[in-house]
Amino acid sequence: MLEISELRKRFAGGPDAPGGKVALDGISFAVRPGEMFGFVGANGAGKTTTMRIVMGVLQADSGTVSWQGKPLDYDVRRRFGYMPEERGLYQKMRVAEQIEYFGRLHGMSATAAKKATGDLLERLGVAERRNDPVQALSLGNQQRVQLAVALVHDPEVLVLDEPFSGLDPIAVDALAAALQERCRGGVPVIFSSHQLELVERLCDSVGIVSAGRMVAAGTVGDLRAEEGTILRVVVRDPAPGWADGLPGTVTVNGDRHVLRTADGDDQEILRRAMKAGHVEHFGIEQPTLTEIFKEAVA
């Protein structure tokens, strides 16, 4: 597995921050073969710094990164696939030529790089643009080419920084399917994203980072279980003050009042709701990843 242990990183300060800025403060997590790991956090939380250290772009002040129990070196990282936050495509180069070029940089033969490029262009839905310069492509199609560059050499590990940023739903589905296919083949995939609904849908495990610390980690199911369940009641056009004295919070959306609570007698709440108006919904719900994230970083 890919193991990140106690990473720490401080950037040198300037006139406004003489003590420097702590970017990572003991980040630890692991990604197993065939697992998709979602790395989430606010801007500046430490996601990109962690990924850059994994890929050797930055050096940690302390801590370790290992793959299959051994520290990473150049030869190991060469077998990884990386999509950086700052996309690294040559704008005037033709699409197929560019993907093949990066395949050759990873040590592939010309024949193998050409075949892998053709397969990926078909898989990602950009085969008809193979002879176009990258600068002629839409943002979504450039993202697909960037993913092809990360995949062309059949990497052992995928490290992707915001791969879904700015994509339309069709492009998101194409990229997600390609990543899921690699996961099924046993490749560990780690990607960062601000699209928490997408992370919740795709990922086996999630790590929530805040101010350089891992504040929550585990499967989505485990994180939900830790937060507990919520009773959600929707009452249409209720009598004023119907929820006075009941635990939880009430939000109003038009003529619908929504009560959400983790406490109280559910039968008593149901009786009050039915007496107050038309009950449209009454049921137990688990928190979404968005709600878990807000609670974790609060």
Number of alpha- plus pi-helical segments: 10
Please tell me how large the radius of gyration is. Answer: 24 Å
The major β-sheet equals:
6 strands, mixed
* Beta strand count: 14
**Average residue pLDDT:** 91
Order of helices and strands: EEEHEEHEHHHEHEHEEHEEEHEH
Number of domains: 2
| CATH architecture name of the largest domain | 3-Layer(aba) Sandwich
The fourth-level CATH homologous superfamily of the largest domain is P-loop containing nucleotide triphosphate hydrolases
In what range is the share of β-strand residues? 25-35%
Give the overall shape, derived from the CA principal axes: globular
The percentage helix is: 25-40%
Q: What is the CATH topology assignment of the largest domain?
A: Rossmann fold
- The parts where pLDDT drops under 50 for at least 5 residues are none
Report the structural category: alpha/beta
| Name of the CATH first level of the largest domain | Alpha Beta
Strand order across the largest sheet: 6-7-8-3-9-10
GO molecular function: ATP binding; ATP hydrolysis activity
Family: Belongs to the ABC transporter superfamily.
InterPro entries: AAA+_ATPase, ABC_transporter-like_ATP-bd, ABC_transporter-like_CS, ABC_transporter_ATP-binding, DrrA1/2-like_C, P-loop_NTPase
Protein name: ABC-2 type transport system ATP-binding protein
What's the short version?
This protein has helices spanning 47-54, 74-77, 95-105, 110-123, 139-151, 169-184, 196-202, 220-227, 266-276, 289-297, and strands at 2-11, 21-31, 36-40, 62-67, 70-71, 80-83, 157-161, 189-192, 205-210, 213-219, 230-236, 249-253, 256-261, 278-285. The protein is α/β, with parallel strands linked by helices and 298 residues long.
